[in-house]
Each structure stands twice: as C-alpha cells, then as structure tokens.
Amino acid sequence: MKYRENRRTGDKISEIGMGTAYIVEAERSEAVKTVRYAYECGINYFDLAAGDGSAFGIFGEALSDVRDEVMYQIHFGADYSKGTYGWTLDLDTVKRSIEKQMKDLKTSYINYGFIHCQDESRDWERYQRNGILRYLLDMKDQGVVKHIGASSHTPSVIQEILDTDIVDMLMFSVNPAYDYNHGEYAYGGVDERADVYKRCEKLGVGISVMKPFSGGQLLSDKASPFGKALTIYQCIRYALDKPGILTVLPGAQNVDEIEFLLKYYELSEEELDYSIIGTFAPPEANGKCVYCNHCEPCPTGIDIGAVNKFYDLSCIGDDMAKAHYLSLEKNASDCIGCGHCNSRCPFSVDQMSRMQEIRKYFD
Ligand code: SF4
Ligand code: SF4
After folding, report:
1. Whose CA is nearest to atom 7 of ligand 2?
2. Per-residue model confidence as pLDDT tens digits over 24-71
3. Pocket of ligand 2 (CB under 6 A)
4. Predicted confidence band at 15 (pLDDT cuts at 50, 70, 90)?
C-alpha cells in the first residue's frame, strides 16, 4: 500500500481506501472479516456514506480495537432512521443519526465530519440556515470531529464550499466518463472539473474519490462512452493521476475482492495506461494534458506528466508547485524537441511547444 499526506491535517491516507457500497450485501460475519482484512492489508481510510445503516455495526465490530489506526469519513446529512440511506437537511434528524452511527461504530470521535452531498447552491444555503453546519463546527470545537470534509458532485457548489476555507477533505465523483461529460453525475464542464482538482491541490485540500468506475459504466464495452471497457485498475490510476487526489474508495464485499483491488500495485505501466480515453475526448478536452504519461518514454528522461502538472498548478498560484517542479531530476529545460511526445499523445497536446512555454515560464 502507498500513502499520500493530507497537507492540511498531516494524515497519511492509503491511496486505495474503501467505501461501503456492497459490504452491506455480504453476510455479517463475511462483511466483518472483509473490513478487517482491508485494514490488515494497509487500507486505513473508510468512507461511511453507507447505503444501509447496518454498515456501522460491521465497522464497529471489525475495527473498534484498532480505531486509532484507521480514519472514518462520516456524513452529517445521511439518515438511517428507516434502515436504509436517506438524505436530510433536518438538524434533529442529523443529530440523532450521528449519535447512532458513532454508537454502532463504537467510536468517541470522527476523523472527518462531512458536509454531506451538497449538489445545489440552495441546499448548501439551507444546510447553513438549518444549523447543521454550526452543529458540525461545534463538534469540531469540542474535539469530537477532528477535521471537516464536504461531499458533492457539482463543481460550482464545491467552489462555494471551498471559499469558506473550513474544509480539509473533499469527496468528489472522479472518473474519465464524468470528466468528459458522460454519465449520470457528469456535472460541470471539462475545465470546471479540472479547476476543482487544481484548486484542491493548491489549497492542500485532499480529495477522496467516489464513483471511480462511474457506477460500473466504465467497466463494460457496451456501456462505456469510450467504446471499450476500462479495467478497475485503469480507473484507479486515472483518478490518482489528478491533482489533489489522495485516495480512491471502491467497494468490496469479500476478501477476494480486496485482494483483487490490491493487485493494482503489481501491474505494469502498460496495464495501467488509460490513454484509450483520448480517442473519445470531447473537443474542449483536446490539447489539454491529463498527466497520463502515455507519451513516455522521453529520450532525455523528463517526467512529462509531472512537469505539466506542476506548471498548471503554478499558473493558478500554487506556491509549492515551482519548488516541486525544480526538484524534478529533469524538467522542461532538458527537452531536445525530438517530437516523440507529440506523436504519441492521444489528447492532441503539442507537448514540444508546451515544453518551451514551460521552460520560459520557470526561467
Ligand atoms: S502530453 Fe499527452 S500523453 Fe503526454 S502526459 Fe500529457 S496528455 Fe498524457
Ligand atoms: S519533445 Fe521534449 S519532452 Fe517530448 S519526448 Fe522529446 S525531449 Fe521529451
């Protein structure tokens, strides 16, 4: 397992985390065994926006003795009073739900207390007006909630929430289908979505990824907008390549599925290469580097994806990006203009020209 640090909190978070989709479908003892096995494999970050209230008891049974070694995202606005998931903006319902979730989880604290699923501005206004945000912030003042998070599918609402500067972690739906305007939650244009990743990286706000496979759409030749199925590993790699991303949160319902997910770390670069998506990129995505490194190898050894990522971040005012760029073993100054990258890029990026532009910018 590899870990990425949330710069605002210092937490070291496993690149592959775990969501609760599917776990509630398993028989209880199998579910407990699976969660425990995930922990034993190094997964330390768990999202608890569960589809069913039984999930909390499963995690409580599996992890309460190692509670301080794992992190939970808990959602202020998810209601389980009827057993299954419901979304609420009612303060008393939120309070009752959080108390019950913590009791079932056998925990006295919450690592990341999430402003839950704000997809529209008017909901975000009501969330504040109804006192739920105040309740969450009070829990933080009392030390019960360690850090604040927010989940949303909508870039414009995310920007509003980021403006408050109270959030240390975001949960966002990240996959190549949504990023290229396909699928149920493909909210926001190509640039709006890219701006969320870049702003989070700049602010040090980590992103945890929900719906990394677009609800399974990307894993089927028939349903995928790219006309060809991607593997779960290509989808995980796609998300982890984006600025700001700390962890991807797939679901699993047995030990075999956890083992299957963790094969990610055994695969070659070719097996993780998702550049097929470039052939179906919408016009507004063409010419924009997605940091995939499909154009490698560069004969002078430049990490082309990293150079481009730090350049883009520096352009939006990320103070640390220049230092990161300068710490690379090779950078745009080493480009010899051979054109190999241009001929390989499936996103029509004129990388030769871009290297010159980047060199001038950092000179
Ligand atoms: S230039 Fe193209 S192939 Fe190379 S990293 Fe950027 S998007 Fe990927
Ligand atoms: S043009 Fe520059 S960046 Fe591209 S492959 Fe050649 S040397 Fe590397």
Report:
1. 335
2. 889 999 999 999 999 999 999 999 998 999 999 999 999 999 999 999
3. 298-300, 302, 304, 335-341, 351-352, 355
4. very high
Q: DSSP readout, 96-132?
A: HHHHHHHHHHT-S-EEEEEE----SHHHHHHHHHTTH
Q: Which of 96, 102, 58, 59 is nearest to 77 (CA)?
A: 96
Q: ∠ at Cα 212 (328, 7), nearest 5°? A: 45
Strands 78-79 and 86-87: antiparallel
Mean pLDDT of the chain, nearest integer: 93
Q: CA–CA separation, 296 vs 342, rounded Å?
A: 10
CB atoms within 10 A of CB 2: 11
Going along 242-282, which residue ranges are E strands?
A: 245-248
Residue identifier of the C-alpha nearest atom 8 of ligand 1 = 292
Q: Rounded to an integer, what distance in angstroms lies between the CA atom of residue 272 and that of residue 275?
A: 9
**Element housing 316 (H / E):** none
Which residues are near ligand 1 (CB < 6 Å)? 289-295, 304-305, 308, 341, 345, 347, 349, 351
Long-range contacts of the stretch 136-141 (C-beta < 8 A, 24+): 136/76, 137/166, 139/98, 139/110, 139/113, 140/113
Distance, CA of 90 to CA of 167 (rounded, Å): 21
Q: What distance in Å separates the CA atoms of residue 268 and residue 272, rounded to the nearest whole number?
A: 6
* Calpha distance 174→209 (Å, rounded): 6
Q: What span, in angstroms and rounded, lies between the C-alpha atoms of 103 and 3?
A: 29
Residue with tokens 């008017």: 122
Distance CA 173, CA 152 (A): 8
Decide if 118 contacts 152 (C-beta within 8 A).
yes
Q: Quick one: which ligand is closest to 306's CA? A: 1
